[in-house]
Amino acid sequence: MPAFPVSRPRRLRRTEALRRLVRETRLAPDQLVLPLFVRSGHGVRQNVESMPGVAQTSVDELLRDAERAAKAQVGGVLLFGIPDAKDAIGSSAWDEQGPVQQAVRALKRALPELVVITDVCMCEYTDHGHCGVLRDGTVDNDATLELLAREALSHAQAGADVVAPSDMMDGRVRAIRRELDTQGCPDTAILSYAAKYASVFYGPFRDAAESTPREGDRRGYQMDPANAEEAIREVQLDIDEGADMVMVKPAGPYLDVIARVKRTFNAPLAAYQVSGEFAMIHSAAQRGWLDLDRAMMESLLAIRRAGADMIITYFAVDAAERLH
User: Fold this and answer.
1) pLDDT digits (tens, 9 = 90+) for 57-93
2) 167: domain CATH number?
3) Is 208 within the bounds of a domain?
4) Given a cut of 80, is residue 44 above it in pLDDT?
5) DSSP 197
6) Rounded distance, CA 135 to CA 138, Å?
7) Cα gap 90→132, rounded to integer Å
8) How far is residue 1's CA from residue 51's CA, in Å, rounded to a whole number?
9) Residue 311 contacts residue 31 (beta carbons within 8 Å)
10) Which residues lie closer than 8 Å to 176 by C-beta, 6 or more apart?
11) Which of 35, 38, 74, 232 is least buried, going by the fewest C-beta atoms within 10 A?
12) Could you give the CA distance from residue 271 to residue 252 in angstroms, rounded to a whole number?
């Protein structure tokens, strides 16, 4: 009889070459998307204190960051705008000369092959910081849909490849799809933040996007962290309304949701490794508690292993350069 044990899994872990040969999950640069924050001006680069290496930039500086991303073969960029003026309905969101619209046009001129995705929401543009029109302290879902559609159309007309509604209003995908189709932008894809949770891990992002609500919070429209079955219903609704891709946000604390969504649907699935996840890894590394590069790569690999086809992450360029 053969000596015990007959099966020895360690045989295939013995060298890096063997480990690569049998590796189940692969991470590639073109599966990563880099978020960028754009504002007006020239030569502007304002570092975000809570997010090392992340900055608000003017369009000219944003192009430098995008060129580095393209050179690293990152799959795309996701744009967030910081307007010069805010009001109750976020009217700067559909300004043809707004920072996002200018950035889209500049990117498509300079880097036409780079996929440009734009975040569609009102929170950066409203003076109250909520994701839609307020009525008696509550976001009016249906009144917000028209505004989101106007914003999405302005991004599409500027040349965005994909618009990504992140507001969590009911019916927003249908409203945006109808506006794009009837206004001559039928080829613009929709990446829906389909399962976006009311998470504490967004904290540093609100510094970067200057979008902290003046009063209250977003638990009345973003998802309860306790719910997973609800995520399946949300994704189904958005696919039925015309979403081309769907997203789970955040990524790391919701790997189970990513896996369930991937098992249930055939639609391309994105996951957003949010600012809090990014900041925690950096903070631990700065204190010598973690190796930054290994923690970065392991966290991204876990999101891929759970089922995400693409990962939106502030680590996108650093990880892509490491993968070459």
Assistant:
1) 999 999 999 999 999 999 999 999 999 999 999 999 9
2) 3.20.20.70
3) yes
4) yes
5) B
6) 5
7) 8
8) 59
9) yes
10) 120, 148, 149, 152, 163, 165, 190
11) 232
12) 9
47: domain range?
26-246
Query: Domain for residue 224, yes or no?
Result: yes
DSSP summary character for residue 28: -
Q: Return the residue matching tokens 């009345």.
A: 220
Upstream peptide bond of 5 is cis (omega within 30 degrees of 0):
yes
Question: Is-contact 234 260, C-beta < 8 A?
Answer: no
**Nearest to 196, CA basis, from 220, 175, 222:** 222
Q: Tell me, yes or no, whether 133 lies in a domain.
A: yes
pLDDT value, residue 1: 64
> pLDDT value at position 305?
98
The H or E element spanning position 2 is none
Total count of domains within the chain: 1
Residue 19 lies in a domain: no
Distance (Å, whole) CA 277 – CA 296: 10
Catalytic residues: 196, 249
